[in-house]
Amino acid sequence: MQQFVNTALGGITLGAVYAAFALALNLIWRSTRIVNFAQAPMAMITTYVALVLIDEGYSYWVGFAVALLSGLVLGAVVERVVIRPVEGKPDINAIILTLGLFVVLHSAAAIVFGSRFQSFPAPFGLRGIEVGGTSIALTPFGVFTVVAVATVMVLLVLLFRYTDLGLKMRASAFGPEVARLLGVRVGRMLTLGWALAALVGSLSGLLIAGGSLVHPAYMDSVVVYGFVAAVLGGLDSPVGSVVGGVLLGLSLSFVSGYVGSELVPLSALAILMVVLLLRPGGLFSHVAERRV
């Protein structure tokens, strides 16, 4: 029974990490209708910015805040310099550019920060919390990760459902020409969407790195699992991204704990195939039914 509980708790924490990255994908999709494959290396860059500050003697929270701010600026710069020139062209052009950016940022990080593994601190303890004299597989940093992801999810739901700014961002993504006719500054909304998505991506990078080792490729596996989590829940739904991340984390944790860790990648692929076959829009998609 204890193994089952610990496996489930480990899966929830792991799922929160996937959900954090899925939320970044969800935000960029809802605000620009583009899948950003460079989200992971962008988060990696801002995590290194935090690590440099921490190594210089600043507190973890100063590095944390500067990393989020760096993500905000980096997202805006990428949109204005890399993505804006292909605005109005087929969406595949922007997606290919993000793949190119993926490679460029990897190389730049290796040149600037080096390719060696470096330890990244965590703001809270990494030892399991004791309940009734027994240590469970839930750490204070894991609790922080779950709370941070839930907070971001709530903020995104509030932004897109209850604010004029969220409505303008969605209008700019779905119908830029109509939005312009209604007085919406589409360019600013797209820049803001990229900036906020990069900020959320930076948060995911910091949560994944906490108490672990970072190197230029440490976010690569998260791209795959984060994308599966976003598709599982639905790219259009922040709640779906979080639920998808937790379900994926639980599934992979039980596979690893009871079947074998070597089957984890295959299990993720199987989940992705099943979702795409049975519910391509994700578990929380809202498909408008039209009578012809």
Automatic annotation (TrEMBL):
It is found in: Cell membrane. Belongs to the binding-protein-dependent transport system permease family. LivHM subfamily. GO terms for cellular component: plasma membrane. PANTHER family: ABC TRANSPORTER PERMEASE PROTEIN, BRANCHED-CHAIN AMINO ACID TRANSPORT SYSTEM PERMEASE PROTEIN LIVH. The chain crosses the membrane at residues 6-27, 34-54, 60-82, 94-117, 137-160, 190-211, 266-288. Keywords: Amino-acid transport, Cell membrane, Membrane, Transmembrane, Transmembrane helix, Transport. It is a multi-pass membrane protein. GO terms for molecular function: transmembrane transporter activity. It comes from the Bacteria. GO terms for biological process: amino acid transport. This is Branched-chain amino acid ABC transporter permease. CDD domains: TM_PBP1_LivH_like.
